[in-house]
């Protein structure tokens, strides 16, 4: 029993040490990633369900490290959030995505395309975050409504007074606020009354089993009905088939995103797609 116990514990410790080493390695290399031009943004189109047109895109971080290769954002974003790295990286993301959006708007002047950017809680907690957002918009000549800041539901639930104030300041600029991964927070929806939210993004875990799964169908229908009653826009995430798009549209979702319409792609390929469509 003893030997077995030590064996399990030993393996557990080894796994912990391994995790810690991996964490430190990622943090160390991420520190240099911006300087080495190893970070880039991909853009995934957001489609209006009504007519299938591209109305904007979500900016998604990519990191191609010389040694580690492609590191997925689900792996390195949590590491960046544990240090202050996410603040520096987040500033770069916001500026780069807005620069790209200004470019798209120049390709197709009547289009009123918008850009959605993911924002971590650490960024909102930084002093002057809203002022920084205003400065970026001004630098690229963009109206505030062209920018959506995506915030995960858990952030809104755990957010302290400072974070909530920063969200309000951004909304006051005219920037749109979207709740990301909506439905995964398992909690009270009371925050929807307290915080100036403009859109809900239905998490792709609810979309994945549509239209066959009755539970998912009921949940998506209920979310869209509630959002509509609250005057919120609904974006269905992770649409992979026509049947899923049809279902979301029939229930009243406004916009959609997913592999069915396009995977996240480089700025150049999105520009080409927009030029062809305009
Ligand atoms: P998210 O914000 O929920 O982004 C959507 C994720 O779903 C993306 O993964 C996207 O590639 C993926 N996806 C889109 N359509 C489909 C589909 O039809 N099927 C499936 N199976 N997946 C789909 P990605 O790019 O790996 O990003 C993962 C997460 O990393 C994001 O989840 C977001 O939370 C975070 N992230 C990415 N970029 C940033 C950033 O610039 N800042 C912050 N703070 N977080 C970011
Ligand atoms: Ca997002
Ligand atoms: Ca999401
Ligand atoms: Ca997510």
TrEMBL record:
Residues 23-278 form the EAL domain. It comes from the Bacteria. This is PAS domain S-box-containing protein/diguanylate cyclase (GGDEF)-like protein. The lineage of its organism: Bacteria, Pseudomonadati, Pseudomonadota, Gammaproteobacteria, Candidatus Competibacteraceae. The chain holds residues 490 to 767 of 767 of the full protein.
